[in-house]
Amino acid sequence: MSELLTRLRAFEGQTLTPTTWGPDAVNTAMIRHWVETMGDTSPIYLDDAAARATGRDGAVAPALMTQVWTMRTFTDKMANNDPSPVWTDLIATLDDAGFTSVVATDSDFEFFVELCPGERVSLTEVIESISEEKRTGLGAGHFVTTLKTYRNGDGAVVATQRWRTLRFRPKDTAQPEPKRESSPGSESAAPKGLRPRPAINADNAFWFEAAREHRLVIQRCAACGTLRHPTGPMCGRCRSLEWDTVDASGRGTVYSFVVNHHPRIPGFEYPLVVATIELEEGTRLIANMTGVEPHEVEIGMAVELDWIDADPELTLPAFRPAARKDS
């Protein structure tokens, strides 16, 4: 075992975040915002009677909201009030060895207890494991896995989450940037550096493969016909594991958007418009806007599909203002 790996392994088992209670109790207002944004129409999240009809005592929070209840507030984050120096020490150790870049690779949630409005949630996080040096497409690096444990006020474990990141040494950035073709209205010049790689797995590989062919596809349940995005192994409506895809028309509207100015990450041009696009088929996805100035973007704006050929290995859908019918 190398000296570096010995030092890294010494972090395993250390507490990254001591038991910390979320700033707010589980509440209906946040649940409502979540389900409307996610398009989750299950009545058990907002209707006590509907929840009781399923054997519950009342409305419950969506399981995937568990992390929401423990998120730090903006003021706390801006004040750099880190709950533990362990993470700072670990990152400094990796940085000193040249592993200065990061990309998230996995988030594995397991749920045990449903949460109800009024309950508080605490979070405890420990460093579970650090891998030996691995060679990846991004460069050599170490996978760091942390284990987050969520508990309610009774001390019962609500959920666990294994969060894995790759801390890697960037490849030689002095190499020439890959040539990129751009379609009309696309970003005019290739930004320096490569865009971060998406975490591709068995559930979403088909979507990225289609994107490389300039095809925007939507996953469809083969049993009930429900369209879904993000992609997943099971239909949220009928629980079928059978699925196929349909080609999207490429037309939609801006459901919401933000304009990013900082932090400036290599591979992007700023200011960067990131929008939630509602496709005319009914599903939504997050994408960049092209061919438009940030101040010109509006909620409800009609848009059409564009493509960003970021590099030979990565193509992503983007959207530009739809051409006017009278133009």
Summarize the SSE layout with pairings:
Layout: H1 3-9, E1 15-21, H2 28-38, H3 48-52, H4 74-78, H5 86-96, E2 101-111, E3 122-130, E4 134-135, E5 140-151, E6 157-168, H6 205-212, E7 217-221, E8 227-228, E9 243-247, E10 251-260, E11 272-279, E12 284-289, E13 302-311, E14 314-321
Shape label:
globular
* SSE string, helices as H and strands as E: HEHHHHEEEEEHEEEEEEEE
Helix vs. strand class: alpha+beta
Counting DSSP H or I runs of 4 or more residues, the number of helices is 6
Radius of gyration computed on alpha carbons: 22 Å
Strand content: 25-35%
Describe the 3D structure.
By secondary structure, the protein is of the alpha+beta class. 14% of the residues lie in helices and 33% in strands. The protein has helices spanning 3-9, 28-38, 48-52, 74-78, 86-96, 205-212, and strands at residues 15-21, 101-111, 122-130, 134-135, 140-151, 157-168, 217-221, 227-228, 243-247, 251-260, 272-279, 284-289, 302-311, 314-321. Strands 1, 2, 3, 4, 5 and 6 form a six-stranded antiparallel β-sheet that branches. It has a five-stranded mixed barrel with strand order 10-11-12-14-13. A three-stranded antiparallel β-sheet has the order 8-7-9, covered by helices on one side. It is globular and about 65 Å long. Mean pLDDT is 89; it is low at 173-191.
